[in-house]
Design brief:
By secondary structure, the chain is of the alpha+beta class. The protein has one domain: Beta Barrel (Porin). The chain has four helices and ten strands; from the N terminus they run αβαβββββββααββ. Strands 1-2-3-4-5-6-7-10 form an eight-stranded antiparallel beta barrel. The N and C termini lie far apart (45 Å).
Length: 251
C-alpha cells in the first residue's frame, strides 16, 4: 500500500506542478493542409535490448493542442550468462509483445507552434507480455554438473501520467521523447525451474534469483529474498516509469 500511495502522490504532484487547464482550444484552427498524422518508430528497445525489437505507433492530432496515440510491437531481451559458473546454452523462447496508448495535452502558453511540436503531458496505459525458456548448462566443477531448464512468463499492466517533448524537424519529421512517466503497475510472473544436477542446486537457485532481480528490479517485491521456489506464480502492485525515444514521419 505504501508503494501505491507514493505513486499516487507523484502523479498528483505532477498535475499540480504543471497546472494545465484541460479545456479544448476551440479558438485555434489548423491552417489548410496541416499534417495531423504521425507514424513513429520506437528506437529505445531496438538499441537497448535487441535489433529484433520492432515497435510502431500512430499519433493523431485532434486539435491544435491535443492528440492521442496507439502503440504495438514485438520485443525480446538478450540472453546472457548468469554467473561464471552458469552458461545459457540456448534460448528456445525469448520474445513478447507490448500494447499501449496515450492521450496528450500540449502546452498552449509554452509552445510556439501547434501539436505535435513542443512540451506535453498526458495519461497512458500499457500492457507488456514476455516469455523465455533457457537451457542453462552448469559447468562449475567435477562435483556439481548438469543442466537446468528455466521457463518464465512475465506480464505487466500499468497506467500513469507522462511528461515529454516532441521536436519538429522541418515539416515531415519529429523526434518524440517521453522522459518522465510515473505509473501504477500490476506485475504477474510465472517461473518454473527443472533439471538434473549431480550436486546441490541451492547455489544455482539463488544465482538465478539474483540475476532475475537484477534484470527486472520489481521482482524483488515478488520473490522472497531468502528463497526462490522452483515453480510458482506471483502477482503484485508496484510502480514503474516510462522512457521513450521515437522517430516520427508526418503526413
Amino acid at each position: 500500500m505504501d508503494t501505491i500511495k507514493r505513486t499516487i502522490f507523484m502523479i498528483s504532484a505532477l498535475f499540480l506542478i504543471l497546472n494545465v487547464p484541460l479545456r479544448a482550444q476551440d479558438e485555434d484552427t489548423f491552417p489548410e493542409g496541416y499534417k495531423r498524422n504521425l507514424i513513429k518508430w520506437n528506437v529505445t528497445p531496438f538499441f537497448l535490448w535487441s535489433k529484433k525489437n520492432i515497435n510502431i505507433s500512430y499519433e493523431r492530432i485532434l486539435s491544435p493542442y491535443r492528440s492521442f496515440s496507439i502503440n504495438a510491437g514485438y520485443f525480446e531481451m538478450p540472453s546472457t550468462g548468469l554467473f561464471d559458473s552458469l552458461n545459457i546454452k540456448s534460448a528456445n523462447k525469448k520474445g513478447g509483445f507490448s500494447i499501449s496508448g496515450d492521450y496528450r495535452f500540449y502546452f498552449k502558453n509554452r509552445n510556439k507552434r501547434f501539436a505535435p511540436d513542443g512540451l506535453f503531458w498526458g495519461v497512458y496505459g500499457s500492457y507488456h507480455y514476455y516469455t523465455f525458456n533457457n537451457d542453462i548448462e552448469v559447468i562449475e566443477d567435477e562435483y556439481i554438473q548438469g543442466h537446468l531448464i528455466l521457463d518464465g512468463r512475465l506480464s505487466i499492466f500499468s497506467v500513469g501520467a507522462e511528461l515529454g517533448y516532441q521536436f519538429a524537424l522541418g515539416k515531415r519529421w519529429t523526434v518524440d521523447m517521453v522522459f518522465m512517466g510515473p505509473a501504477l503497475a500490476l506485475y504477474k510472473t510465472k517461473l518454473t525451474l527443472t533439471g538434473d544436477l549431480s550436486g546441490s542446486d541451492e547455489e544455482y537457485l539463488k544465482a538465478i534469483r539474483d540475476i532475475l532481480i537484477g534484470r527486472f528490479p520489481f521482482l524483488d517485491d515478488l520473490i522472497d529474498k531468502g528463497e526462490f521456489d522452483d515453480n510458482g506464480v506471483s502477482a503484485s502492485f508496484g510502480y514503474g516509469f516510462r522512457y521513450i525515444i521515437q522517430v516520427s514521419y508526418r503526413f
